[in-house]
Write a structure and sequence with these properties.
Blueprint (H helix, E strand, L loop, with lengths): L2 H27 L10 E5 L9 H8 L8 E4 L17 H10 L5 E3 L5 H4 L13 E4 L4 H8 L3 H11 L3 E5 L1 H4 L33 E4 L12 H6 L4 E5 L3 E6 L2 E6 L3 E4 L13 E3 L4 E3 L4 E4 L9
Parallel strand pairs: 1-5, 2-3, 2-4, 4-5, 6-7
Antiparallel strand pairs: 1-8, 7-10, 8-9, 9-12, 10-11, 12-13
């Protein structure tokens, strides 16, 4: 081995070691299977959130009322009114509750036009946003306006920067992979034949999310979804109840219960094919097991 080879070999080994060390955090970020590698999701089952602390938690995750940059999307409320006329949202009305909470930097983002949503000018606020909130309504309206656009990409970019995305009711369902109740004919249809309304925005991958399950007796409604698409994890949310998703784990927050449709479990013939989590419980979606109970204890496996 000549002098040049002896000098080169340690250098190559050093470079390889450094490359592996630097790439380790990136690999760790990419290792999530369900939730985002960075950032947080706040997914709420609709209804009143008064006294739950959910909105306070969302604002905190978004950088705080004074420092965060919030974008509110009311689009699920409808692109057209009952007469078929284009709906116009009053920005002051949409943002009133946020300003009452002391949020200093908050803007509304809405269009019915996917071509407009694909422009840099329309999506400018998202480029710097630390938090995005989707209001309730019908989830397919959100798909019609933003799927496949620059705006859609920038929603995901908020998470990539470590921000937070939240939403309630339709704003919860849109966060999943499968779009539960995506039919334009009515919300009573759980699985639509409309191909353009079957996919959500996949902030929470491999999931199907339903809402209002306690108030509207929807506990069993996503059973057929999981039967037909067994790779999905079904999540049914009660009103005033949220899951806070970090990586592949979520914690239940709020007033009531969350139904988890996990088809990797064995259920007895008399049991429904799901189990229920309470506020404070934490669940590992990748491992498919409850990792913490509301009283802080670890459940027996």
């Amino acid at each position: 081995m000549n002098m040049r080879t002896r000098l080169t070999l340690p250098f190559v080994l050093m470079v390889l070691t450094l490359t592996i060390a630097l790439s380790a955090p990136i690999a760790a970020q990419q290792a999530t299977e369900y939730g985002p590698a960075t950032g947080t999701l706040v997914i709420v089952g609709g209804g009143s959130m008064a006294g739950t602390g959910i909105m306070e938690r969302f604002i905190e995750l978004g950088g705080g009322a004074e420092e965060g940059r919030f974008v509110v999307v009311p689009t699920a409320g409808g692109n057209y009114d009952r007469e078929g006329d284009l709906r116009v949202f009053d920005e002051d009305q949409v943002l009133a509750s946020w300003r009452e909470r002391g949020v200093m930097n908050v803007s509304m983002l809405h269009t019915h036009d996917a071509k407009l949503a694909d422009t840099e000018a329309f999506s400018a606020d998202l480029a710097q946003a630390t938090a995005v909130w989707f209001n309730g309504g019908r989830q397919w309206n959100i798909v019609d306006s933003y799927a496949g656009t620059r705006t859609y990409d920038l929603f995901h970019a908020v998470l990539e920067r470590g921000g937070v995305i939240g939403g309630s009711s339709a704003g919860a369902t849109i966060q999943g992979e499968y779009l539960v109740r995506g039919a334009t004919e009515g919300s009573q249809i759980v699985m639509t034949d409309e191909e353009n309304h079957q996919l959500g925005f996949e902030f929470l991958r491999k999931s199907a999310i339903d809402q209002h399950i306690n108030a509207r007796m929807r506990w069993d409604d996503i059973i057929p979804v999981i039967e037909q698409q067994p790779h999905l994890l079904g999540i049914g949310l009660s009103e005033g109840t949220a899951i806070i998703v970090t990586g592949d784990t979520f914690e239940v927050m709020g007033k009531w219960k969350v139904a988890v449709h996990d088809n990797t479990r064995t259920y007895q013939p008399w049991q429904k094919p799901y189990f229920v989590l309470a506020p404070g419980d934490a669940y590992d979606m990748k491992a498919r097991r409850t990792v913490k109970l509301g009283d802080g204890t670890t459940p027996r496996r």
